[in-house]
Write a structure and sequence with these properties.
This protein is of the alpha+beta class and 155 residues long. The chain is 26% helix and 27% strand. The chain has four helices and six strands. The protein has helices at 29-38, 46-55, 102-116, 131-136; strands at residues 4-6, 18-22, 58-66, 69-80, 85-93, 121-124. Strands 1-2-3-4-5-6 form a six-stranded mixed sheet. The structure holds coenzyme A (COA).
């Protein structure tokens, strides 16, 4: 199928359907919102989500395919300086498909795409409950004591 890459055969959806990745940015924002709703994320203005996707360096979607029907079941994106660094954001797998190795496959695919662009420094901000998910994938919290620091308005 053009524009789609099949997930490793060990990472099927568990329902007899196949799972594919795509880096096509032509995403139905309502479908993406539904996916983010399903994991309880707060809603964000769609015009901003659209802009974030437009200006991301890499956008990866994960699809369950049944015949001609496709369903968005995972998403991640990365911003980058296009030379050294990339930061991964918005990693999500639909709850119906969690615990089947698809989050790992989504992350490994995203990392592979960034490495293929010669990006060597890949970072992300992990919610506390998923630190070990990322640790298993080779991400280190606070390497050499380095801390992520945040500035928020009105604090
Ligand atoms: C985090 C998330 C992407 C993981 O996706 P998933 O498809 O369930 O993960 P996988 O099945 O690929 O799990 C891969 C490995 O990580 C482990 N793992 C999965 N979720 C984990 C968690 N929350 N904490 C620790 N380990 C976890 C699995 O046990 C598995 O281990 P194994 O390789 O030893 O078998 C998914 O749970 C999700 O979308 N959560 C809601 C959104 C979210 O919190 N995103 C991260 C924001 S920073």
């Amino acid at each position: 199928m053009d524009g789609y890459e099949s997930v490793d055969t060990t990472s099927r959806s568990g329902t007899g359907a196949r799972v594919y990745f795509s880096t096509d940015r032509d995403i139905d924002l309502y479908e993406l919102e539904e996916l983010c709703d399903a994991v309880g994320w707060s809603r964000r203005p769609l015009r901003k989500v659209k802009k974030a996707i437009q200006y991301s360096f890499l956008v990866v979607t994960m699809w369950e395919m049944r015949g001609k029907k496709r369903r968005l079941i995972g998403f991640s994106r990365a911003t980058s300086d296009h030379a050294f660094n990339a930061t991964i954001w918005d990693v999500v797998v639909h709850p119906d498909f969690q615990g089947k190795g698809l989050g790992k496959a989504l992350m490994n695919y995203s990392i592979k795409r960034l490495r293929s662009q010669d990006i060597s420094n890949i970072t992300l901000f992990a919610d506390p409950h998923v630190v070990n998910f990322y640790r298993n994938l080779g991400f280190m919290p606070d390497p050499e004591g380095i801390k992520g620091m945040f500035w928020y308005p009105n604090r």
